[in-house]
Structure formats: C-alpha cells, structure tokens
Write a structure and sequence with these properties.
- This protein is α+β, with helices and mostly antiparallel strands and 320 residues long.
- It has a single domain, classed as phage-related protein like domain (phage-related protein like fold), CATH 3.90.1690.10.
- 24% of the residues lie in helices and 25% in strands.
- It has eight helices and 14 strands.
- The strands form four sheets. Strands 1, 4, 11, 12 and 13 form a five-stranded mixed β-sheet that branches.
- Strand 12 and strand 13 form a beta hairpin.
- It is flat, with a radius of gyration of 26 Å.
Length: 320
C-alpha cells in the first residue's frame, strides 16, 4: 500500500502538524550577514595593522616634494560552496491532494509542503555551519578568549562575576569594540536573571527578576543581543529523536558591520553569497509508476571570519 506524506481521510485532513524550528529562532544571517559576490571565486584584501596606525611625515616645504607613501595588502581568495536538497513527489500524490482540496477535505499541497520542508532543512544546516564556526575557540586569537570553570561560571549566581568578565572582554578586542553579543538560549537563561546583572540594571532596587535583551545591550554599550534557540535532531536515522541546541554554552562578543564585504570596511565576518536562492521544479518520469516532479532548493554561499581580532569568546560561560 502506498504511504503518502499526508492523509486523505475526510475527518483528519483539515490539519497538517509538523514540528520544526520557527524562522524567528535562526540567527545565522545576523551573525554573518550576507554579502553578494560577483562569481563563484572571489577575493578580498587584508591590510596590515602597522599601516593602519602609521604616522608618516606629512610636512611639505614651500617648494619641496610631497612625501609619497605606498599601500600594501595581502590578497586572500575563497570560493562559495553549493548547498541544496530536493524532494521527489509522485504524480499520484499530487493528484490525490488535488482531489482532496476540490472536495474541501484538505488544503495540503504536496509541492508547497516539500518546498517548506527543504527550506527548513537548509536553514538548519546553515545555522549549524555558522554556529560551529563562531563557537570554535580556534576562530579567536589566543589573547581574545577566556574559558570559565567551576564557580566562575555564570550559572553560579553566588560567586560568578559576569559584569567583570564581559567588561574585560569588551576592551580586549583590536581597535573595534564589539557591538554584538551572540549566545545560546541556555547562556541567556542564566545571564538574563543573574543577580549582578539585574541589580545593575534595576538600580540596586532588587537582584531578582529578568532583564530584556535591550536592557542588557544598553548596560554594556552593545548594539544588539542575538540568542540562538534553534534545535536539531542528533540521533541517527531510525532512532528516537535526540533534540539538541545548536548554540551551546559560550558567549561571543563581535564587531559586526553589516555594510562590510570583500572590498568594504572591517567586520568580524560575513557570508559571501553568489546569485539568488535556487528554487526549481522539474518533471521526472522515474518518480513512481506515473512519474512525478522534483522540488529543489539551495544556495551558493561561503561563511567567513575575516577579522578575528575584532571578536572575543567566553567559553564554558554556564554549566551545561
């Protein structure tokens, strides 16, 4: 018997329930903003710190020559990668769903259903790529990372000092002060109610409660606070679901300039994007007995950290 990814029973087909991450919980596009590039391969120029802060003699005599300087830079190259998925849909599924809709028994469209599912899977994968890159301690210079342990973890409300830790981190990046805090839901769970944070924001009136992201940002002079709440199933196919948070127990303080790109200003990182979102529908005679269609969606991107010294990581910020 054919098993379809939707039901056609007159009583049951009014609703389709599927668990997935809501779009609002993804933060990858804000952590590493998308920047269009002109080809699959692209390059950017990295200028030396010494040149940026040099003080060349610029005095000019009445008839003397103006002092000439030369700018140097290191060209770095990269290339986008292709990411995508497709779902085959038998024509028999499409016809069955159409008949159910005509009889007012269902609103399900298998092709739209497939497109939504592919989008969700692709977004999960992108969130993981960005989270893995941003949360990797090796992404940061050795002098711009701190690992908390024991009672220093912010989940220990009695002994930890998140304000001191964050203030020290904020002044430890190179030239550009962080403007964005990036963390997982568990870190925010503890930070937003930490007595030291609540007390500082509420003006010594209380050390109990919950602060907002906006209040937290103002306290430390940040532009925004990004909290990743997406989850993935870490279990192997066929096993019971094992949901895990994509963003873990570290806090990242980053200088993110959404206007920067391969030839723009300094930013901790960006996502090079070549072309627009790929969305395809094509017929395939090899899908089922009556043929069918293929729904495909993907993108061509590359996530990059290009100025790691404008970021600071506090790992093990809370107990897992």
């Amino acid at each position: 018997m054919t098993v379809r990814p939707f039901v056609t029973h007159a009583i049951l087909t009014a609703y389709a329930i599927g668990y997935q991450n809501p779009d609002a919980v993804y933060i990858a596009d804000q952590v590493l903003p998308r920047v269009p590039v002109g080809g699959e391969k692209f390059s950017w120029t990295e200028y030396s710190l010494e040149e940026g802060f040099a003080v060349p003699d610029n005095t000019v005599g009445r008839t003397g020559r103006v002092n000439r300087i030369e700018l140097s830079g290191t060209e770095k190259e990269s290339a986008v990668k292709d990411y995508g998925l497709e779902i085959p849909i038998p024509n028999s599924d499409i016809e069955a769903a159409r008949n159910a809709r005509e009889k007012k028994l269902s609103t399900i469209d298998p092709e739209r259903q497939a497109a939504r599912r592919i989008k969700s899977y692709n977004m999960n994968n992108r969130e993981i790529r960005v989270a893995d890159l941003i949360q990797d301690p090796n992404t940061y210079a050795a002098s711009r990372r701190l690992a908390l342990a024991g009672t220093d973890k912010w989940s220990d409300y009695e002994n930890s000092n998140p304000i001191g830790d964050i203030k020290d981190a904020m002044r430890s990046t190179l030239v550009h002060r962080p403007n964005t805090a990036v963390m997982g839901e568990l870190v925010w769970h503890y930070l937003s109610s930490h007595p030291q944070i609540v007390n500082a924001i509420r003006g010594n009136l209380t050390n109990q409660g919950i602060v907002t992201k906006e209040e937290f940002a103002r306290l430390f002079g940040l532009r925004r606070v990004l909290v990743g709440e997406s989850q993935i199933n870490a279990a192997r196919p066929g096993q019971v679901a094992n949901l895990q948070m994509v963003w873990g127990t570290s806090l990242q303080l980053l200088y993110i300039n959404s206007d920067a790109g391969p030839d723009g200003d300094v930013t901790f990182g960006f996502t090079a994007e070549y072309g627009s979102l790929v969305v395809m529908r094509r017929e395939d005679g090899d899908v089922g007995l009556q043929g069918g269609v293929i729904i495909r969606e993907g993108e061509r991107v590359k996530e990059l950290v290009v100025a790691k010294d404008t970021g600071f990581q506090i790992s093990g910020a809370v107990a897992a």
